[in-house]
Amino acid sequence: MIDSILHPRIMPTRDWATILFVVALVLVAVTKSVFENRFSDYLRLIVSDKYIKVYRDSGHLRSGFTVALFIVQLISLAFFIQLLLAYFGYASKTDWVLFIQIITFLAVFILSKFIVEKIIATSFNMEEFVEQFNLQKVSYRTYISLLILPIDIVLFYTNYISKNLIFLFIAIILIVNMLTYLISLKNYQNLLFGKLFYFILYLCALEIAPYYFMYYWFTKS
């Protein structure tokens, strides 16, 4: 008689991701309900600059609307980074510990960069420009994150995705991000000409160098 040996098959759990996706969608729904008019203007951000003109005051950077969508932005970007790492064979998309590491790194990086920008802006006497520029960048970056969120959900729950589709997503995100950055520069070109030298220093130190060092560190490690 042949004895059968049964090996338990451990399936990676996805419950934690489902909970986070639900939290992100609930935050979007609550924000839409509480800030109905503002959210409506925000949805038209990609085709109209009305939102930027109406909510250009720096106080809106710390409002409940911005904070709630910032949390959604962190969840969306962290998932997208982890899914890319999983697709290229560097990680598992169901690794919740890695997700915590990624989202913590993103939060620390973005907030640290914001604080350093405030310090440099005060030193160079360009606070007004940097605050308005930051508010516009945050608005567009969050908008892109909202567009990425449904892509995250599809990629997470789908096991087989075409390589061309992955690269298409990446290309669209990079192009949209670049276009929104150029729009931000165009909107504040009058302020830029008055502080062009300081802006070039700001651009090199805080908009190019951090991402270059992140890329260098990742490729080397």
Q: Give helix % range.
A: over 70%
Strand content: under 5%
SSE pattern = HHHHHHHHH
Could you name the ranges where pLDDT drops below 50 across 5 or more consecutive residues?
Answer: 6-11
Span of the ends, CA to CA: 53 Å
Structural class: mainly alpha
Question: What would the average pLDDT be, to the nearest integer?
Answer: 78
Number of strands: 0
Largest sheet: none
Radius of gyration: 20 Å
Shape: globular
What is the helix tally? 9
Q: Care to describe what's here?
A:
By secondary structure, this protein is mainly α. It is 78% helix and 0% strand. It is built from nine helices and no strands. Helix 4 crosses helix 5 and helix 5 runs antiparallel to helix 6. The protein starts with 14 loop residues before the first helix and ends with a helix.
